[in-house]
């Protein structure tokens, strides 16, 4: 005689992509989850947000973003424009990005697009 399955046994409970994403990345360290390699540096920079100009120091950089040490306060999701030596020839390039996390020492910016090179002073 065949046993009847209850609905919960017959099909697994579906879950959303956010839950899947969280499950997968919870098991990984930040280093493993990175798409681009990060490189330490110490480059002074200026950046703009909400039509104001700020100063900071780029502490690490990758193709996907940077960490800027700054005393200014920002919020996650805030759009910024950062100038720095991002090109292969170390020419200053403006990069548009958004703040993806922040702490008391600075902000992590994920690049969203690149602007034209600016002359180095």
Could you characterize the architecture of this molecule?
The protein has a domain at 38-117: predicted glycosyltransferase like domains (Thrombin, subunit H), CATH 2.40.10.220. The termini are far apart. The protein is globular. It has a six-stranded antiparallel β-barrel with strand order 1-2-3-6-5-4. A hairpin with an 8-residue loop joins strand 4 (79-84) and strand 5. It contains three helices and six strands. It has helices spanning 7-10, 17-26, 30-33; strands spanning 39-49, 52-61, 65-69, 79-84, 93-103, 106-117. The chain has 121 residues and is mainly beta.
Show the helix and strand layout.
Elements: H1 7-10, H2 17-26, H3 30-33, E1 39-49, E2 52-61, E3 65-69, E4 79-84, E5 93-103, E6 106-117
Antiparallel strand pairs: 1-2, 1-4, 2-3, 3-6, 4-5, 5-6
Helical content class: 10-25%
What would you call the shape?
A: globular
Q: Tell me the number of helical segments per DSSP (H or I, 4 or more residues long).
A: 3
Number of strands: 6
- Termini, distance in Å? 84 Å
Kindly provide the name of the CATH class of the domain at 38-117.
Answer: Mainly Beta
Proper CATH architecture of the domain at 38-117: Beta Barrel
Average pLDDT:
75
What class, by secondary structure content?
A: mainly beta
Low-confidence stretches: 6-29
Rg calc: 21 Å
